[in-house]
Task: inverse folding
């Protein structure tokens, strides 16, 4: 469908959980049971929405049918709004991905998340507009050069976004993220979210971030930290997040981040299997004892957060 540019409702402030795609068995089939349980967990701990088929969701390793299955499962297991990731950088395949997500989710689709594909604001603005005109969907612009290979200065990104009233948020993942977020929030009215596993969360919130859109293995810690910042400022947020910083650091190990994070979800009982699909690398056995030790160090803080959630 072709429509004119429409103003999008901004994404709700808070934590948007980036959902992994669990696999099972030697064939690494999509494990819909684990996926449904994990989505329910995100909702139970206070996430305001879900981001499905992002980089953490291994969307590039999924077939078209599997992508639809993942979206359907997430929608059926939760009432949360959903942002659907679009992996393609070129406009026509990006439109195809956005259209497919829209066909599966219907009104449950809050927005499609599109990679910034050019440092030229004219090219980027044209790309975003074409996707919106073809689908009518609101857009979240993701600036993630580690995945896209495209570096976009904050001022350039803001220029393109200001031309696009259908943009509902920006996800800023170009280090140093706090600097990028400070510059973007000074230039834009739409909310700007941090990512990168929560690695820069405290500084991002201080710089004006609306929350986090990431897949850290303890999403309840992200939720509690954002709430603490809103209610008590930077010091309260720092106290809340401090017990989890070793895990954040562990998860961000180059080339193993996906396997580390999925293994932590498995160790927490939130998914049944930590399998990843090539080209992602599996977790080396040597790191498993270290991972378990780091998780044990965070369990008391997790217990306190779980108690607070149940009381609240």
Result:
């Amino acid at each position: 469908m072709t429509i004119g540019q429409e103003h999008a409702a901004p994404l709700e402030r808070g934590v948007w959980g980036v959902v992994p795609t669990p696999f099972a068995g030697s064939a690494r089939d999509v494990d819909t049971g684990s996926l449904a349980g994990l989505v329910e967990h995100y909702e139970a701990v206070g996430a305001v929405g879900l981001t499905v088929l992002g980089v953490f969701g291994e969307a590039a390793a999924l077939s078209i049918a599997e992508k639809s299955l993942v979206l359907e499962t997430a929608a059926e297991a939760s009432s949360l709004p959903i942002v659907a990731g679009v992996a393609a950088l070129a406009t026509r395949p990006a439109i195809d991905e956005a259209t497919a997500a829209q066909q599966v989710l219907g009104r449950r689709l809050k927005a499609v998340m599109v990679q910034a594909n050019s440092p030229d604001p004219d090219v980027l603005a044209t790309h975003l507009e074409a996707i919106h005109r073809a689908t009518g969907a609101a857009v979240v612009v993701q600036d993630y050069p580690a995945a896209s290979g495209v570096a976009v200065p904050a001022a350039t990104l803001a220029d393109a976004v200001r031309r696009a009233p259908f943009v509902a948020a920006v996800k800023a993942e170009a280090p140093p993220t706090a600097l990028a977020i400070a510059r973007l929030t000074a230039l834009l009215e739409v909310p700007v979210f941090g990512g990168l596993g929560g690695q820069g969360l405290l500084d991002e919130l201080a710089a004006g971030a609306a929350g986090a859109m990431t897949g850290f293995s303890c999403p309840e810690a992200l939720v509690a930290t954002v709430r603490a910042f809103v209610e008590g400022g930077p010091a309260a947020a720092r106290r809340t997040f401090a017990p989890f910083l070793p895990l954040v650091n562990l998860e961000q190990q180059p080339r193993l981040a996906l396997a580390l994070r999925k293994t932590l979800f498995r160790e927490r009982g939130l998914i049944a299997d930590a399998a990843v699909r090539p080209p992602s690398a599996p977790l080396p056995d040597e790191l498993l004892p270290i991972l378990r030790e780091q998780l044990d160090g965070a369990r008391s803080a997790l217990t306190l957060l779980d108690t607070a959630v149940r009381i609240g």
Notes: The beta strands are 14-18, 23-24, 29-30, 49-52, 82-86, 109-115, 139-143, 167-172, 192-194, 211-214. The first strand starts at residue 14 and ends at 18.
